[in-house]
Amino acid sequence: MSQTPSPTSPPAARPTEERQPSAGLVIGVLAAAGMAVALQQTLVVPLVPDMPQIFDTSADTASWLLTITLLTGAVATPIVTKLADMHGKRRMIVLALSVMVVGSLLLALTTSLVAAMVGRALQGLAAAVIPIGISVLRDELPPERVGFGIALMSATLGIGGALGLPLSGFLYEQAGWASLFWVSAAVTATILAAVVLVVPESPVRNPGNFDLVGAVVLSAALTALMLVISKGASWGWGSSTTLGLLVVSVLVFTAWVPMQLRRSEPMVDLRTAASRPVLLTNVASVLVTVGMMANGLLTIPMVEAPASSGHGFGVSVMTAGLLMAPSGLAMVAFAPGSGWMLNRVGGRQTLILGAVVVAASYFLRPIADGSLTAVVVVSTLCGLGAAIAFAAMPALIMSAVPITETASANGINSLMRAVGMAAASAGTAAIFSSLSTATTVDGEAVLAPTSTAFTVGFLLCGVFAAVAAVVAAFIPTRSGAVPQPGSGAEKVVRGRILLAAPAAGAQPEHVLGTVVLTCPDGQQVDWARPDFDGHFSLAFPRDGRYLLVATARGWAPRVSVTDLTAGCAPLRVTLDDRLTVSGVVTCAGSPVAGATVTMFLGSGEHTGHTTTDEAGRYEFPLPAPALYLVAAALPDTGAAHAEKIQVMAESVVADLELEPLPEPLTEAGTTVTGGSGPRPE
């Protein structure tokens, strides 16, 4: 490996003499931004019954004002977070909040349904603020504040949702529809200014090429999927539209996955996303989010139902919203506790505890619905469990991915939460539609959910949360710690893995491997997965000496000691020790030239063939670990030999001694000659 730490470019880190904002101020501003974004998800929920009248349209058409925000948020999040890793996290937060201000102003100034949908779509584009903000906190906070910052930022999804219900009802009753969005625009603009003034731009970047085709295909697949989840209940789960969109989503995802695996710089690194820590955390995220979202979807209609229903309390819409506020406030209040747990017991145990608390809150619901106080207590308990679990999710994700990809990895986790929210809404609607009974409200006959519908909903959510706890228990313990913070001082060095020159006429190989950077004592600092040309980026906390371990499929790893400084020249690592399956073919103790050597998988698939050189030597690139059969033969004489070999992650030497031509064996008109192993009787 060659290394030249000459300062050929300006330092990536901010100068040490530059005065940095306090950690508390950064946390507060980013948490406020997260709450403002989360408010947009629920801001119009209490107004659903009035929206057809406001826009002079049908109830089904008006419901798109809810759907389109969720849809654009799901589509935009992976794209915006990827751009944040590449071009700057604060820059993307500023862009997202600016778009949200424009959307709010558009909603405040119009009663046109089309313009209102555009405004709600623009508001949804800001959903990426929360995962990007979490990544900024990891980069900027001192070690002792990282856990609390992640916990509070993660909880903003629930906090904003819980506070949005009573706030929107109050504003609408007092000042009308437009007031909601004048307030939203003013608050968001204030937070935007605070972000510009307070939040520093992270120096951690992952420059490269944006996978535009992958982004477009992913957007198409997500659009179809989210439409199925969010509109399937109203369209009918068996309708041609729902089934057609489901087929489209499956087909597009099926095409997108191999496309990403073939990309040198994919939109989503599926190999990292499929790793056990990331995959299991994302699965648990969906399940816990279903419980968090269903808390309001089940509790509000239950307490609003008349007492004559046998399960309701007959409270007003405003009161129902206020009853959900403690759930959101509990998420704020317990953020320090969640952060303490992350620091003391790690992300895995924190996630397990949060999921168990959510499950317990739902299993208690059927026996705690006798009084309004008990309902509020168990609802708040659910919010508390969700806050604990949500704090752990990004910590687990960021501990398992390269530092330069934390925003995009959190974006995928945020997308999983959006899927969970949509699934909770669709599932609740399906339960209510299948378990309803006719009742009279204000002299009109309507269908209302039965007590059984709520009981089924509570128990299912409890089961989902319990399954999430089980899934979390299988997350590897090495990913259980809070991610190492950067405290604003991390620098990024670029580099490239070079493979030894291929043989004349051979195609250049793709680099499929990893690069790991550690301290001299072996503590891991960062890691990266190079693109197909070998380019990679690594973050390191301070100037000094590090160990760099580079490996690629089919090549022996290489470890080097390197001194890294701000602005050092790109690193170059040459791998020249190819891992092979090789040997010498002999006959009667003498090397055999021109022998045919073939290699098969133990299951019979052909993997390669070659001929021996003048010295009887042959060589194959090391294939994937498995059991193989290597066979050599001289077609002219019939001499042959075969051996089984076990390929692992190191070179294999298999010398083959050809056996003389045996007596021909004829069976059923077929002549069999040569080979090795026992001859038939």
TrEMBL record:
Q: Which Pfam families match?
A: CarboxypepD_reg, MFS_1
Residue ranges annotated for the Major facilitator superfamily (MFS) profile domain, each copy included: 26-480
- Does the keyword section mention Transmembrane? yes
PROSITE patterns per the UniProt record, alphabetical: MFS (PS50850)
According to Swiss-Prot or TrEMBL, what is its membrane topology? Answer: Multi-pass membrane protein
Q: What is this protein called?
A: Major facilitator superfamily (MFS) profile domain-containing protein
The record, for InterPro entries, names: CarboxyPept-like_regulatory, MFS, MFS_dom, MFS_trans_sf
Which residues does the annotated region (Disordered) include? 1-20, 660-681
Compartment(s) of residence: Cell membrane
Q: Which Gene3D superfamilies match?
A: Carboxypeptidase-like, regulatory domain (2.60.40.1120), MFS general substrate transporter like domains (1.20.1250.20), Multidrug resistance protein D (1.20.1720.10)
Q: Which UniProt keywords apply?
A: Membrane, Transmembrane, Transmembrane helix, Transport
Q: Which residues cross the membrane?
A: 23-43, 63-81, 93-115, 149-171, 177-198, 210-229, 235-257, 278-300, 312-338, 350-368, 374-397, 418-441, 453-475
> Which superkingdom heads the taxonomic lineage of this protein's source?
Bacteria
Biased region (Gly residues) positions are 672-681
